[in-house]
Amino acid sequence: MLENVLLFLKTQLNNYLKIKTGDQGFEAVFLQERTNKDISFQNDAISVLLVNLEEEYTFRSGATLSPVIPQGTAAQANPNIYINLYVLFAANFTDYSQSLKFLSLIIKFFQSHRLFDRTNSPDLSSDIEKLTLELVNVPFSEQRDIWTYLGMSYMPSAIYKVRMVTFSDTDTVVIDSDIAQTEFLSSNI
User: Fold this and answer.
1) Which residue has the higher pLDDT, 65 or 155?
2) Strand 45-55 and strand 28-29: pairing?
3) Contact partners, residue 115, CB within 8 Å, separation at least 6
4) Bigger pLDDT: 172 or 116?
5) Which of 17, 47, 88, 125 could form a disulfide with 41, with the two C-beta atoms 3.0–4.6 Å apart?
6) Three-state DSSP class for 45?
7) Using CA atoms, how far apart are residues 56 and 132, in angstroms rounded to an integer?
8) Distances from the Cα of 125 to the Cαs of 10, 117, 164, in angstroms?
């Protein structure tokens, strides 16, 4: 599900960039292959990276019975988990002014497209009800920590909080603990 969210945002941003730049071939991309545990961002592109996620407790229910009553009985189910994603959009261009131009386009796009749902985005994945985006104000010390963790120098970027991806307990998979333990033990021998 998380991959669907990031792919959707990347695709929407790329469609916007094609219109704004006259389809010059600049685009948002995911990270390149990792080598030696180093992260590298593609040159002359906008890199999209999930940098954090958090559970949104505000809407979490403690109920363990499903509100849907199939065949007249309430089903046992864990409550939904609502996740907020923190997504980094980094403009990595050799020309610094080009990086600033693309960062401006990112901000303009998400300022005018703060909500994605089925009415304005019919290609939104079926497991995603809606997404709302807000620009995150990251203090200098936290920015330094992020870029240090990535092992890179700062580049023009913005972090957006993507609210709320809903994880539901819709799978009715029954796990037999004896079988699972036996399979675990046999796979570790």
Assistant:
1) 155
2) parallel
3) 130, 131, 132, 133
4) 116
5) 47
6) strand
7) 13
8) 13, 10, 14
Cβ atoms of 82 and 60 closer than 8 Å: yes
Asked if 165 contacts 85 with a C-beta cutoff of 8 angstroms, the reply is yes
Asked whether the beta carbons of 39 and 152 are under 8 A apart, the reply is yes
Sheet holding 81-92, edge to edge: 28-29, 45-55, 81-92, 157-167, 130-135, 115-117
Q: Which of 89, 34, 83, 32 is nearest to 58 (CA)?
A: 83
The Cα–Cα gap between 153 and 162 comes to 25
pLDDT in tens, 15-39: 899 988 887 777 778 876 666 666 7
Radius of gyration of the chain (CA): 21
Q: Which residue's entry shows tokens 């559970």?
A: 55
Region label for 151, one of left (φ > 0), alpha (ψ between -120 and 50) or beta (otherwise): left
- pTM: predicted TM-score of the whole model, two decimal places: 0.78
| Amino acid (1-letter code) at residue 103 | L
Domain extent listing, the chain: 2-187
Q: Given the DSSP bridges, would you call strands 115-117 and 81-92 parallel, antiparallel or unpaired? A: unpaired
